[in-house]
Design a protein that fits this description.
Number of strands: 12
Helix content: 40-55%
CATH class of one domain: Mainly Alpha
CATH superfamily of one domain: Cytochrome P450
Shape: globular
Largest sheet: 5 strands, mixed
Number of helices: 17
CATH architecture of one domain: Orthogonal Bundle
Order of helices and strands: HHEEHEHHHHEHHHHHHHEEEEHHHEEEE
């Protein structure tokens, strides 16, 4: 391609300062830049520095999601996650390696598999909700994390032994509960030797040792063929198809950690925001309680989807260009990262009237336009666990609301924790037994 590059305007802030702001305050930074610069703008961040071009118009988002994945690399765009998720992660690979990983993981999240998982999710949620008491103040994010963690440990890892769960839970919680600055260690490896990075990655090594031990033990299990958890499914790769190369332990570890991190706090945060919004709106809460009692999962799912729209858990998608490309009518150079903004897409008045109001009916009354509600990304890289996350969230909402009404006394502030947006105050709710 020839011609002058057309990188959109952006702030002149030093890349180091912009990196700090981008990793800590995107929920306010990105809307402010949008108000100043319009639907498309750029920012320069480290390492490099590199250029991110932010898009929010649905037509541009569609174009990026539909683009040739060999030229729009999502793995490269997610590279900052490599020290945690590993080089083989389905989120970090591209081209043939990504296609293989996705092919192997997808069967675990199809309709029949999810129907098999649903009773397990219900049982875990019931145990948690049984421990709550009338009049208590619920630290919602903590309790939703507890549910989501046990779901992912049992569904993905197949770990049901309580002694093993007791060892894994605190270590995995520490692995998830990190500030975004921890991710800087990938760009600046010297940080690994300094606190707090040193302690975090030591804990990660301990989690890895537990996972590798679980993998070794499961490989030798006599009942592997009859198990439905994701680990057991992955270990059977190659059994029925000699052309399918089995996964190495390192590949197995990276996919399991990816599912653990991507499917744990994201769902917990979505549930926390949804319960918080219901706790602030008695009329909608009454409808949700009625839906829980009557088995109206469609309304409960709409509540969850609207919570994810109003409070995007992951707030942008990244694709790094492998060659010069025209995107949104602009010629952009190789190496540019194009980023459909989820937070801007979800707050767009043209797509969602009265966009800053929590209104689950928008997901029932009319069809949501494509490329406007994008919490799971899109195109060939759309999250493979999307349907599982919605199923899990709906089941947990039903279990909670069948036994408790909830009240939120204040608006929960947002906090960026690692790559997810969570309620900074953990979304406290007053419980009233029904």
């Amino acid at each position: 391609m020839t011609g002058a590059y057309d990188i959109p305007a952006g702030p002149r802030t030093h890349p180091a300062v912009m990196t700090w702001r981008f990793m800590r305050n995107r929920d306010t930074l990105v809307p402010r830049l949008h108000a100043e610069l319009g639907d498309t703008f750029s920012v320069r961040i480290l390492p490099g520095p590199r250029t991110l071009v932010v898009f929010s118009d649905p037509a541009d988002v569609k174009e990026i999601f539909a683009a040739d994945p060999s030229q729009f690399h999502a793995g490269k765009g997610n590279e900052i996650l490599k020290p945690v998720m590993g080089e083989h992660s389905v989120l970090l690979t591209d081209d043939a390696e990504h296609q293989r990983a996705r092919k192997l993981l997808m069967p675990a999240f199809t309709g029949p598999s999810m129907r098999a998982y649903q009773p397990l999710v219900e049982a875990i949620a019931k145990v948690e909700v049984d421990s709550w008491r009338d009049g208590d103040t619920l630290q919602t994010l903590d309790r939703m994390n507890a549910i989501a963690l046990d779901v992912i440990l049992q569904v993905v890892f197949g770990v049901t032994d309580e002694s093993r769960l007791a060892v894994l839970r605190p270590k995995v919680n520490r692995m998830v509960n990190i500030d975004a600055k921890m991710l800087l260690a990938w760009s600046y490896p010297r940080l690994f030797a300094l606190p707090p990075w040193r302690g975090y990655f030591k804990n990660q090594q301990e989690v890895d040792e537990l996972l590798y031990a679980e993998i070794r033990e499961r490989r030798a299990a006599h009942d592997l063929e009859g198990r439905d958890d994701v680990l057991s499914r992955l270990l059977r790769v190659g059994d029925s198809d000699p052309d399918e190369k089995p996964l190495t332990d390192a590949e197995m570890r990276d996919q399991l950690v990816t599912l653990l991190l991507a499917g744990h706090e994201t769902t917990a945060s979505a549930l926390s925001w949804t319960l918080h919004e219901l706790g602030r709106n008695p009329a909608l809460l009454a409808r949700a309680v009625s839906a829980a009692d009557s088995g109206d999962d469609a309304f409960l799912e709409a509540c969850l989807k609207e919570g994810m729209r109003l409070h995007p858990i992951i707030d942008f998608v990244a694709r790094t260009l492998q060659s010069d490309q025209v995107v949104g009518g602009r010629l952009l150079p190789r190496g540019t990262t194009v980023t459909p903004s989820i937070i801007l897409s979800h707050s767009r008045e043209a797509s969602f009237a009265d966009a800053h109001t929590y209104d689950p009916d928008r997901f029932l009354a009319s069809k949501i336009a494509p490329n406007t509600w994008i919490p799971f990304g899109g195109g060939v890289r759309r999250c493979i666990g999307a349907a599982f996350s919605l199923m899990e969230g709906t089941v947990v909402l039903r279990e909670v609301l069948q036994r408790f009404s909830v009240t939120a006394d204040a608006v929960a502030p947002n906090k960026l924790r690692n790559i997810t947006n969570v309620p900074a105050d953990k979304a406290p709710l007053r419980l009233t037994a029904r």
